[in-house]
Amino acid sequence: MEEAAGKPPLRSRPRLAQPALRRILFDNVVGMGVSNLIAFFVILTAAVALHAHGVTDVQTAEQAASALRPFAGPFAFLLFSVGIIGTGLLAAPVLAGSAGYAIGELQGWRAGLEEKPGEAIGFYGVIAAAVLFGLALTWAKVDPMKALFLSAVINGVIAVPIMAAMMVVATRRTQMGSLTAGKLMTVLGWLATAVMAVAVGLMAWSYAQGG
Questions:
Q1: Which of 69, 120, 178, 193 is the most buried (most CB within 10 A)?
Q2: Per residue in 10-47, pLDDT tens?
Q3: H-helix or E-strand spanning residue 109
Q4: What is the pLDDT of residues 102-150, one digit of tens each?
Q5: What does the alpha-carbon distance between residue 21 and residue 182 come to, in Å, rounded to a whole number?
Q6: Burial of 186 by CB count in 10 Å (0-12 exposed, 13-18 middle, 19+ buried)?
Q7: Under a CB-based contact definition with an 8 Å cutoff, are residues 109 and 4 in contact?
Q8: Calpha distance 36→29 (Å, rounded)
């Protein structure tokens, strides 16, 4: 079977697979490291700017912005707006592109930003639809704070079966050929899946207890 882009899969070309996997490993390590470092400082800043000033239940963006007054003074709302807009500009193409790749590869379409729009209509169509859906939400009467929280919860829950399915495929020689996951990667992968499953279970138990 060939990939959506018309090229044979890496498992049938093991000589080319190792350089590609090393590049993917580097990309993931650097990307996850930087993103987690940024997330840590976001949490730290929120604790200092919000919790330290008694803001423990943020329901609106206005509340979050007003909590920046001790740090930014009259520029609090401007600073918050710039941060939100910047985050949106970064997230919108990434999320829309991810949706395009996921659906495109699932359907076997030509998928990739290196493809011309006329040759990957489905791929670019999904990206356009995702962007339009996001724009539509700005006019919908949806609480953005609750929407962010709910989306995080949904992502955490669906991550468990996705991770489990990924581990099954990664360790199945009939699908991966000589590129099956090694013992260490298999142990770490299943351990991460188990940790996520326990976290989801504890969250469900907490909600069941009214927490």
A1: 120
A2: 666 667 777 877 888 899 899 889 989 988 987 887 77
A3: none
A4: 898 888 888 888 888 888 899 999 999 988 888 888 787 777 777 778 8
A5: 13
A6: middle
A7: yes
A8: 11
Where does the pLDDT of residue 165 fall: very low under 50, low under 70, confident under 90, or very high at 90 and above? very high
Neighbouring C-beta atoms of residue 163, cutoff 10 Å: 18
From the number of C-beta atoms within 10 Å of its C-beta (0-12, 13-18, 19+), residue 46 rates as middle
H or E segment and range at residue 111? none
At 7 the pLDDT is 59
From CA 59, how far away is CA 66, in angstroms rounded? 12
pTM to 2 decimal places: 0.64
**Which CB contacts under 8 angstroms, 24+ apart, belong to 161-170?**
163/189, 163/192, 163/193, 163/196, 164/193, 167/193
The gap from C-alpha 17 to its chain's centroid, in whole angstroms, comes to 25
Residues counted in the chain = 211
Q: What's the rounded Cα separation, in Å, for the pair 43 and 85?
A: 19
Chain centroid offset of residue 129 CA: 18
Q: Quick one: pLDDT at residue 195?
A: 95
> In Å, how far are 126, 146, 160 from 152, measured between CA atoms?
22, 10, 13
Domain boundaries, the chain: 1-140, 141-211
Distance CA 133, CA 126 (A): 10
CB atoms within 10 A of CB 196: 18
